[in-house]
Design a protein that fits this description.
By secondary structure, the protein is α+β, with helices and mostly antiparallel strands. It has seven helices and four strands. It has helices spanning 14-32, 36-48, 61-64, 84-99, 126-139, 163-170, 179-189, and strands spanning 68-76, 104-108, 117-123, 144-153. The radius of gyration is 22 Å and the shape is extended.
Length: 194
Amino acid sequence: MTEHGTDEKREGNPEADAGQLQGVGHGHAKKTKISTQAVGKIRKKLEKEGVIRGYACELDFESMGITTFAIVYAKIVPDKDLQMKLTWEKKNAAEEIIKASPNLLMLAEPIGSEYNYVALFGFRNQAEMECFIREARRVYAGILEDKRIDTFSAASLIKFDKTPIFRAMLDGFKPRNPALPQLDQIKKLIKFKK
């Protein structure tokens, strides 16, 4: 999903898009010490395989007026009278309603959690968020109930960036903690007393 909330590829002129991406390819070529042509081939391969589904701009939430976020943990309301088929229909209907919300930034179905859904929503302010939650409780009554809501402001957003994981994937996706080498250096400098 792109930051502007759609899964659709951006429409445009492929040659112009390639020209715009050439600067990006040059930056990656310089960092990885391979040619820009090789970077271009890798990019095209990733597009063909569906790893890259489209291109999006990086949005500044505060500049757009999105100042409040809510992480909502929700659970399907248990109903002992419902048959399994009806439970799945209820679940599918809930998902479709949630996905249709223009405020939705992310929706996940965690495995091994007490919650059926975790969703991230963005709002212009606290009042808009509260109104949304009240309306959602009315719409989802008997289907979903929010079990926990964590809120935070755009000013407290520390990181919301997909770029590092993409770069790691290009580097062979070797998970690493950038702080570990620094911690090793610090340990060498500090003599621990026993």
